[in-house]
Design brief:
Layout (H helix, E strand, L loop, with lengths): L4 E7 L5 H13 L4 E5 L6 H12 L4 E7 L6 H8 L4 E3 L13 H4 L8 E2 L3 H13 L3 H24 L1
Parallel strand pairs: 1-2, 1-3, 3-4, 4-5
Helix pairs in contact: 1-5, 5-6
Protein name: N5-carboxyaminoimidazole ribonucleotide mutase
Keywords: Isomerase, Purine biosynthesis
GO molecular function: 5-(carboxyamino)imidazole ribonucleotide mutase activity
Length: about 160
């Protein structure tokens, strides 16, 4: 099944690339293939829709991750345009007092991208979604959780 999995990170602009690479590092840990693309819901909506259509034609299990700062319409746009899961993971920003996150959280009815704030969490949620149909990823998630528990126990004993 792993050969049939694909994560597509869609960036609102090139400035979001560093954040995508952080997510990519975590996806690599789980051996999940990914692609990074750029398409803006505000500046190039037709192109963004074209990208979604291209990926929908593939015979793959796809998760889209929308990575857009400032006013993030991208996650909602992608989610409204596809039957595949969409995860918002906007880059961290201290601008606007952090209120720009609201554009990733408030969605109209019928549009439901998940929103996570950390790169590793986006990769973990993606892995769990794909693990629903991939036994190999299920094993990797269980091992990941086991390692977390062992670290907690080790830290506890060290106190």
């Amino acid at each position: 099944m792993a050969k049939n999995n694909l994560v597509v990170m869609v960036l609102g602009s090139k400035s979001d690339k560093d954040w995508a690479e952080k997510i990519g590092e975590e996806l690599t840990r789980f051996e999940i293939p990914f692609q990074i693309r750029i398409a803006s819901a505000h500046k190039s909506p037709e192109y963004a829709l074209q990208l979604v259509r291209e990926y929908e034609e593939m015979n793959k299990n796809i998760v889209f991750i929308a990575i857009a700062g400032r006013s993030n319409a991208l996650g909602g746009f992608l989610d409204a345009s596809t039957h595949f899961p969409v995860i918002n993971c906007p880059p961290q920003s201290d601008k606007y007092g952090g209120l720009d996150i609201l554009s990733s959280l408030r969605m109209p009815s019928g549009v439901a991208p998940a929103t996570v704030l950390e790169a590793d969490q986006a990769a973990l949620l993606t892995t769990k979604i794909l693990a629903l149909i991939d036994l190999n990823l299920q094993k990797k998630i269980k091992e990941y959780h086991k390692d977390l528990v062992e670290k907690i126990k080790k830290d506890d004993k060290a106190l």
